[in-house]
Structure formats: C-alpha cells, structure tokens
Design brief:
88 residues, three-stranded antiparallel β-sheet, 2 helices, alpha+beta
Length: 88
Amino acid sequence: MNASGDSNADRETDGGYEAKNRQIWNKLPPLVSHHRKNNIVTGKPGMSAYSENTSSLAETLKLFTTDNILNKICHHTNAEHSSHIPKL
C-alpha cells in the first residue's frame, strides 16, 4: 500500500512510474532524434515533369508500367478468374 492508502496505484521510481506488471513509464518524453540526410525529402510534392503532360489515368499508368507487366497482370487475373468458374 502506498502513502495514499491505495494498493492498486502505480509506484513512483527514480526514472518514472512502475506499473503493477513492473512496466516502467518515464516521467519525461523521449529526446528528439535527428533524421539522416538521406531520409529528408527535398523535392517538390506533386506531379513531376514526366507526369505534367498526362491527361488521363491510363496515360499516367503507362509512365510506371511496361507492356510486359500489364500482360502478366492480365494473365494472372484471367487465371484467377477461370479458377472460380464451375466446370460443366
């Protein structure tokens, strides 16, 4: 039992508070850490020079995918669909 008479209360320690399950909770928030230079985005958000001239979703998609990738997507989509069609 602590000074207030409540045996269920968390116990105060030097670094913070100790819960009943012995978890230590810090009194102060963690120190702010600095990010590496390679994690900082410096570019302008939004469309790039490549995508500014596209007028449709299909044109934009073509900037990121090749015909080979689209053919593979179609092949596997058709294979998945045909596996769900009952055989007669």
